DNA sequence: AAGTAAGCGAGACGGTACGTCCAGTCTTGGT
DNA sequence: ACCAAGACTGGACGTACCGTCTCGCTTACTT
């Protein structure tokens, strides 16, 4: 029989208030102007309650912002038409990443990941890896590609969309993602 | 006739010491553990001398680390063989970005760019834009591509190489860049 | 008939453990480094159990340390020889107050009394007043002094012994108390 | 030639503001409710400026409050009449110690001295020792007493006045000091 | 003997203050 | 005139305890 981790009586109300305060402050002020004191004050919570459950600001912010990415549907839809599915999906990805809080969250998480290996790993596990896998497996299944080629194609699509968005922000247009996806699909399907 | 910016009476010795100290500290401790006081102490310089010439830590670090990227040769070589040139170039890029200080510098600058628009613009102007243009113009010139397609292809190559390196660090292998480049060239050249 | 305070259902084991822990910590670390959390931990008791029965740290410490003074015999012995009795008694007082825990306790209680009127009153009632009365009544009874003179003489003996001990600590020698007592007795008995 | 301690450029304005704030807060709230943060805020000073020059709250408070005692005239006047001089002096001492800020300061310093050896030594050097010496030397010079007897008599007068004041506060009346002084002088002068 | 409520240990909670680090500004003295 | 040195105000850090507040568990007193 398995013993569950001690749940250690923890106030759900405080946890939720800390999450909400952190999300708000991170999105409106950015990561490096986010202070634990401000979060505590906004959440109506003692600082120690934050330090009791999170080891560092980086982990707190990652916990909060990754929640959104975790609940995002990153899988390529399957209507039977590989090209249409991938194009639609890449446009949707571009639209998500240039819209509202996802945009800001992604930049904050990327910044944090550059300096903290643990955040890097979590961001990858929650965002980079799922989208990569999603394309890769679809390309293998329906495009008849071998694993290595599918991997490289996925690199190109993911990086080709995400990297310009990180660099140029919300000016990125979905049409740019569509064109890129077409080129890669053309390159990958020997006619 | 253009008058060069008045250099005022500025101590070149101090400037160089500050650059050296900043580079060393940034590379060994990371951006957010880099303090102006530590730089001043290591450079044997008063804090005011730093504040006199740089408005913020972000700008100082960008000045210092971008120097390296500025002196990097990012242009695609031209041997006449487009495919060979691009493949060689993408491998070289991958190799540079996973080696030594470039790797660390790129991560620091990217992190800084995520939070600071000015750094973002400078990084783009010094790194992202030149490599993108370099590929794009070559594809237009020798591949016979139209501007829009060449732009999308450049997105795919640059993002496809740089984004995984940012995420997975120095495990990235040049062969991965080569395969990706081949796919895109295949997709872009109507056979 | 007086009804004693309901003792409620109070754990004698906990009370004793708290007393012991408080005494040990007070004597070894001093009053202002004594924390309720440390007492609770050392006594193996919840903090609430302390707060349930004592309103403040000052009261707890006073309760604990005054116990010792309460059990001290502070009355002047009566062998019929007033001079010998008072001298012996003042030497004994000096010896007690410079020995072992009494010394430390007296300093802690005095410090606490300086800042807290309630402790001041209790220390006075348990220590200052009894020794003062003890001398005063003896001087009135056997020395034939009027109340006012006896009071002043008691001031001189008590203050003359206790004050230097508080100030100079355990270097005080009983001979000093003896000489002082002799002088006062001389001054008080018009021959 | 002696080199004076480096005076280390220090802001006199800040020093004075810290002194004033500390004195006010100590006298109105007592030692243990005095916080460094409150002093800094009231003085309009960064906390670091306090920590830069004083190692602890106890030392700061001692510095500030002892200033008053240092400027107090504690010497026994000399009109030629030993009895009148000592009586007047003891009444004046009682009056000072039961009046205004001296009363509060003495209690705070005494409390602090009980827990901190360094403060104890300074309080003794600034207050206890000078008054003791003042009486003692006068008794030796004009009363014809030997050193040991004069020492004991000084113990009696100082302790006999100060100790009740510490214990019973401002209810102490100068007449009580006068009577006590008379008794001791009587005891000390062989008629 | 069972039921119940007070006392208990544990420790999370909102807070206050600690003593430290650094930011960015200001001042002094030396070269 | 510029610079190194470093003191200044101020904000945030992460820690220690405060006194209050549940939470289940144990225990002694009903009835």
DSSP E strands of chain A, number: 0
Rg result of chain A: 20 Å
Largest interface: C-D, 46 and 45 residues
Uncertain parts of chain A: 1-5
Write the layout of secondary structure elements.
The structure is a homotetramer of 191-residue chains.
Chain A: H1 12-29, H2 36-43, H3 47-53, H4 57-70, H5 82-97, H6 100-115, H7 117-143, H8 147-168, H9 174-188
The first copy, chain A, binds a DNA duplex (31 and 31 nucleotides) through residues 8-11, 14, 35-38, 40, 44-49, 51-52.
Account of the 3D structure:
With 191 residues, chain A is mainly alpha-helical. Chain A is 75% helix and 0% strand. The first copy, chain A, is elongated and about 60 Å long. Residues 1-5 of chain A have low confidence and may be disordered. Chains in contact: A-B, C-D. At the C-D interface, α6, α7, α8 and α9 of C face α6, α7, α8 and α9 of D. Chain A binds a DNA duplex (31 and 31 nucleotides) through residues 8-11, 14, 35-38, 40, 44-49, 51-52.
List keywords for this structure.
DNA-binding; 75% helix; disordered N terminus; mainly alpha; 9 helices; 191 residues; homotetramer
Give a brief outline of the structure.
With 191 residues, chain A is an all-alpha fold. The first copy, chain A, is built from nine helices and no strands.
């Amino acid at each position: 029989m398995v013993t569950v981790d001690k749940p250690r009586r923890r106030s759900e109300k405080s946890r939720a208030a800390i999450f909400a305060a952190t999300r708000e402050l991170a999105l409106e002020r950015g990561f490096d102007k986010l202070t634990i004191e401000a979060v505590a004050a906004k959440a109506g919570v003692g600082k120690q309650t934050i330090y009791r459950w999170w080891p560092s600001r980086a982990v707190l912010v990652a916990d909060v912002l990754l929640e959104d990415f975790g609940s995002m549907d990153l899988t390529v839809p399957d209507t039977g038409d590989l090209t249409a599915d991938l194009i639609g999906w890449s446009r949707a990805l571009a639209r998500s990443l240039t819209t509202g809080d996802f945009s800001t969250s992604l930049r904050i998480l990327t910044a944090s990941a550059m300096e903290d290996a643990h955040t890097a790993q979590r961001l990858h596990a929650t965002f980079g890896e799922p989208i990569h896998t999603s394309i890769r497996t679809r390309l293998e299944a329906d495009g008849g590609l071998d694993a290595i080629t599918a991997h490289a194609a996925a690199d190109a699509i993911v990086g080709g969309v995400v990297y310009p968005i990180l660099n140029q922000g919300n000016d990125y247009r979905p049409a740019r993602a569509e064109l890129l996806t077409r080129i890669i699909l053309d390159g990958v399907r020997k006619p």
